[in-house]
Amino acid sequence: xxxxxxxxxxxxxxxxxxxVQLSTPDLNDYMQLPxxxxxxxxxxxxxxxxxAWAEKNITFLDGYAGIEGLVRPxxxxxxxxxxxxxxxxxGKILSADTNRGMVQPLxxxxxxxxxxxxxxxACHIFEASGxxxxxxxxxxxxxxxxxxxKYFDKNGNLIRKWDENDxxxxxxxxxxxxxxxxxxxxxxxCAQTCPLGLDNALIAKEIRKIFxxxxxxxxxxxxxxxxxxxxxxxxxxGMTSAAFLDIIEFLEDDIEEKIxxxxxIPVDKKGxxxxxxxxxxxxxxxxxxxxxxxxxxxEAGLDWTLSSExxxxxxxxxxxxxxxxxxxxxxxxxxxxxxxxxxKRIIIGExxxxxxxxxxxxxxxxxxxxxxxxxxxxxxxxxxxxxxVLQFDPAKNNFPVTLHDPCNYVRSMGIVxxxxxxxxxICPQFREMTPHGVHNYCCGGGSGFAIMNSMNxxxxxxxxxxxxxxKQILNAFADTIENPDIPKYVCAPCSNCKGAMRDIFxxxxxxxxxxxxxxxxxxxxxxxxxxxxxxxxxxLSEE
Amino acid sequence: xxxxVFLYLAFIAFIVFSLKKAIEFAKMPMHGRWxxxxxxxxxxxxxxxxxxxxxxxxxxxxxxxxxxxxIIDMLKEILFIKKLFDNQRPxxxxxxxxxxxxxxxxxxxVLLFLAFFISLPFIQGLAALCGMAGIVLVMIGSGGLxxxxxxxxxxxxxxxxxxYFNLAFLFVVAATGFxxxxxxxxxxxxxxxxxxxLLTLTPFAAGPLLTVHIILAGAVIIYIPxxxxxxxxxxxxxxxxxIWDNEPYLPGNEISVKVKEGMSYxxxxxxxxxxxxxxxxxxK
Lengths: 543, 284
Prior knowledge:
The complex is a heterodimer of chains A (543) and B (284).
Chain A: E1 2-3, E2 20-21, H1 52-56, H2 76-93, H3 103-111, H4 118-122, H5 124-128, H6 137-151, H7 171-180, H8 189-193, H9 200-214, H10 223-233, H11 241-259, E3 274-277, H12 280-285, H13 288-300, E4 304-305, H14 319-322, H15 324-341, E5 345-348, H16 352-360, E6 374-376, H17 377-386, E7 401-403, H18 407-410, H19 417-426, E8 430-431, H20 457-465, H21 467-476, E9 488-491, H22 495-507, H23 510-514, E10 516-519, H24 521-527, H25 538-541
Parallel strand pairs in A: 1-2, 3-4, 3-5, 5-6, 7-8, 7-9, 9-10
Helix pairs in contact in A: 2-9, 3-9, 6-9, 10-15, 11-13, 13-24, 17-19
Chain B: H1 2-26, H2 67-80, H3 82-87, H4 89-117, H5 121-151, H6 153-156, H7 161-184, H8 190-200, H9 208-223, H10 231-243, H11 254-263
């Protein structure tokens, strides 16, 4: 495959034939990491795309592919169909009839960009890639804007038919744009800095919507194995109600083993004050997290329950990232469970996007049918700490701890202080990352990246998308990073963020070499409980 | 007299086209929540980006909103383009020069209007000063941005022909005003005369260069609301109606009424993906 030289990639380049790869990943170009990963030799080498998918999928943007179903057309008819379907979907996102929920913010963002590039400096992917032009936040936005202006009037009506000799648009443009929509974490940090309040993340999400809602193309982990599976089985993990109940029993055994007393985890308790919802991935990958919630809620004497109903035991809603219809279906089914259980409120556990989906995104759609108040777990736990309902011995957490702010409930919901108040109370060596709070950087796993592992997408995630976060973590622990005897804990109170941390620590062997640990907030809280005799955190037990 | 009528038409067109744009955005359906923090109106929390979601049972508590904090934030943005200053200083110098120049020219017109009724030399002097500074700043800002966009590769590749034209248009308007001022009218005395003609509906005598300048100025006033330079309209919506709109649904509140209305809407168009209702192929 011919490689383009390292010159500024332009929007016109997106039309280049499929044998031209616009950008080639190169560690030398990427943003430098701090010590001890400050040399190329200290980082794993990048791989070449290989396998049947490399020729079939859309690797000719940047050498990576994230969408299994987005494949190269085989005939002229398929090429035409790809472009025409895209234009048909584009018309629908521009219409107040078919995109009621987002048409106003979208048209504002399409109309007013001043091309000042202020957003660029704010983007962790653009910066981490060494300012690769294709990852500049306005690159994909401007391409969509130009296609829109050429093909649609201001009312969203198609004004010309596509013709294969169009100098600005062909199937390769559309295919590259589809992949490019998945080179943005939708973290919205760029929108915070825009002097006009415009949002490139929204535009990336709307492109994803065209592909999913009109063309039927979305990454498998989000759609087929995500929302579709969740609507069918109750969970994107495929976990059925019976399996969930088995896991709860296992958790009760595990808790007993760890803390020396048995807790009965309430399930399907009608009329409880609280329905606690978890990302079902926690039960599979990090069961110590829902177990920690159970320990804290039990010790605080709260009136709470979990649900074993379909859609009641998994609070994820991947629709948030790519498909409004799917988001509403999932969100409605989750609220229905709470309503039927008669709980007074839903407390959302450590899952960032589930917070935003249930509390914010569904607020003007699904709640109309099934209104139940939704709250984050953070203010509740902060109050338990502040009111001394729970007693802690902070000395048990006497190791360096830093906090990652999940974009979905920090930048998009304004929950900033409760987690800090808790950490200051229970972790004597707590230190902030720079920047933090609403100005945080995404973990790199946002908007579905954390679960997109097919083809070679994971390499993009671990080397580019999570790079800025890794840099922040290394800087936060600069004083102790090279001492493997001291555990250093990244508190990431969000399942997807934890997934991103897990992958990056594995990729760089950071736990093995430098004792970098990650986990949620509730695990730290349980570890510091005065009532416990043994450490709750596994890495402390191993010492 | 034609110049006077043309300027009136230009002002009316500016207002009508701007309002039309605002009404178009205002009439769009209520969007899904898409707020982004910091939201300055969150009382006691806006400065760090916090919100009512930091409270337990927030839906049972009274919303604490600070209109003053919101207005202060707005003014910082309107008067100083603060986000650009904070995040993109090299661009800010030129952009702010252009915007401040436009504000000063508006100030010039306001002072000329006042001076028509209150004959104080101070006001007349200040008006002339505003006009001169405004013309120079618009010229520096628009000219500087035009050059910056032409030479800086990462700006050049995204700048469209119309965007160059917009800047060039502003530059030419300011430049013709500048040349007229320097060569023919060092005290900018045409300002009070023009205001007098406008308010008394009497003919205004202008030389060829001033006539060209006034026609171009009128044309740009008509042109601005038809382009993305109407971001004074868009910015109201992007901030107030999108990223600062965090009004929650509460049973019986205004949002709940709108949600109810929205739920009864039946779209005429339909998305085509297979998972949409009615698009599924029959399963065997």
